[in-house]
Amino acid sequence: MAVLCLLAATATATACGYGSRAKDADTARVAPGAERIEGLDSVRIGYFANLTHATALVGNQKGFFQKALGATKATYATFNAGPSEIEALNSGSLDIGWIGPSPAINGFTKSRGKNLRIIGGAASGGVKLVVDPKKIKSLDDVKGKKIATPQLGNTQDVAFLNWAAERGWQVDAQSGKGEVTVVRSDNKVTPDAYKSGSIDGAWVPEPTASKLVAEGGKVLLDEKTLWPDGTFVITNIIVSQKFLTAHPRVVQAVLKASVDTNRWIRAHPARAKAAANEQLAADAGKALPDQVLDPAWKSIDFTDDPLAATLRAEAAHAVQAGLLDAPDLSGIYDLTLLNQVLEAAGRSPVDDAGLGVPRPAT
């Protein structure tokens, strides 16, 4: 069976807001007298106009990336889809990107481990099962209902199928038909589908979950409760292997900026939330209203740890659902530069769960 998107066509939007278009944005702020790193003129950074990518949103808006890069200019491209971001990385039009676990796995396996590496973490959590409280009053009531997920084989689709299977419900993963019906629905249209009554609920990331709540939905389950310590990867940082080899100091500077941004987010949550929303307005043309922004922001944890063990588990869930052949993920992580940044900041290293680039024996 071919790898699915995990496995999806690029034309459909997925869990973290994946779509097929990219919009270039250039908001570099080069300090006077700054020097280029490794003589490089610019580095191209990609992310989604989505709160689960708030590290990139805030890092861009507050200038953390440009500060770390000196006179190497930070340029930005925003994406609506994981597949399109992977394509940009593979084509060389993107160097570093923020992306969800499913497209990262897919991009790595489809290239047989040759095109990308996960080099850091960005966010955990921010995924909920939101339902119509008039139709669904308990978890058992989900059986027999129509539940939306963002895309066939995407991270939330796999999570919902795995949850349903653990409850003993039979569902055909490809068609979505069974004892609960899975409706694959673009996050942009899911709130309208909920309002029209064509779905009874949705297993979706933020801010879609909070948009549904604003329409009268009820949070029936927060995916955090299904994971040890309440943490699971929702956003990673990836890099082109070619760019990583050619410009390790530039990559390290971007990672330092990411770590600095996350530290600032944790220290100034209200200001960080406002900065993320301001950048969302610039990138997507519309800011989120407070009734959506506030609960969505609270449900996301920003972390430098890529939570590698949870990515391994998510891949296993996709295999169990029949959506993915057992992948060889050896070498999908290279956390060397991130751990150097963390060590310099007096922090402990993070783990790659045995999926790191093999190192020569010494």
UniProtKB/TrEMBL annotation:
Swiss-Prot/TrEMBL keywords: Cell inner membrane, Cell membrane, Membrane, Signal, Transport
Locations listed in the record: Cell inner membrane; Periplasm
CDD domains: PBP2_NrtA_CpmA_like (cd13553)
Gene3D superfamilies named among the record's database cross-references: Periplasmic binding protein-like II
Signal peptide: 1-15
Similarity comment text for this entry: Belongs to the bacterial solute-binding protein SsuA/TauA family.
Protein known as: ABC transporter substrate-binding protein
Organism: Streptomyces atriruber
Organism lineage: Bacteria, Bacillati, Actinomycetota, Actinomycetes, Kitasatosporales
